[in-house]
Design a protein that fits this description.
This protein is of the alpha/beta class. It has helices at residues 9-12, 19-35, 45-51, 71-74, 94-105, 121-132, 140-153, 155-158, 163-180, 182-189, and strands spanning 59-64, 82-87, 111-117, 194-200, 207-213. The chain has a domain at 16-118 and 181-213: 3-Layer(aba) Sandwich (Beta-carbonic Anhydrase, Chain A). The radius of gyration is 18 Å and the shape is globular. It holds the Pfam family Pro_CA.
Length: 215
């Protein structure tokens, strides 16, 4: 992965340099996706060639691995715009933290966006574990166990549905990134990065803000 040094002027042109402007670009891109007015930016041969020496994404997109959450599509972005990290249930491990820290520290990315969604299989499995006391086999169990803390925190609200658990898990992940990573915490204190949590509606295609720091 290339660092910022030597960035082509064409790539830097109009680059969102603050957490607030980066978030605005994401929100506007999602609106275009929802209304069917996508621009498909930065997806041509010129962009591909310009990016070859270096990258400078304006946002880290840390989301669930669900196939319906293709980040560049739902935010109408292109090559070099988003630094995407995805795990089932957007659970956090050392590899996730290291990847996000790389984007923040080496690439100077000003925004970290955590993206959860409705009908999340990891949340549903954690709810089943709470209701019935059973957990999946294999390494899927590790995913469910990491989501379980969020489900248990709102267990009084979630037994009849998943929305409260989805939102709680997004908030939990946002706070966890700041607590676990000194790199993120320091940049946040300096105003150089923001962390936002968003929930995506699969049927509508819309995102809405759930939590955030420094944005």
């Amino acid at each position: 992965m290339a660092e910022v040094g030597g960035m082509d002027d064409d790539i830097d042109s109009g680059w969102p340099a603050t957490p607030a402007t980066a978030l605005q670009v994401l929100v506007e891109g999602n609106k275009r996706f929802v209304t069917g007015e996508r621009r498909h930016p930065h997806q041509d041969a010129d962009r591909r060639a310009a990016l070859a020496p270096a990258q400078r994404p304006f946002a880290v997109l840390f989301g669930c691995s669900d196939s319906r959450l293709a980040a560049e599509i739902i935010f109408d972005q292109g090559l070099g715009d988003l630094f995407v990290v995805r795990t089932a249930g957007h659970v956090v491990g050392a590899e996730v933290l290291g990847s996000i820290e790389y984007a923040v520290a080496a690439l100077d990315t000003p925004l970290i966006a955590v993206l959860g969604h409705d009908s999340c299989g990891a949340i549903a499995a954690a709810l089943d574990a709470v209701r019935h006391g059973t957990t999946p086999e294999g390494f899927v169990r590790d995913v469910v166990e990491r989501v379980m803390l969020s489900v248990l925190a709102v267990r009084g609200q979630v037994l009849s549905g998943t929305d409260a658990a989805v939102e709680e898990h997004i908030r939990y992940t946002v706070d966890l990134l700041v607590r676990r990573s000194q790199v993120i915490a320091d940049r946040l204190a300096e105003g150089r990065v923001g962390v936002v949590g968003m929930s995506y509606g699969l049927a509508e295609g819309t995102v809405r803000r759930v939590a955030g720091h420094g944005v």
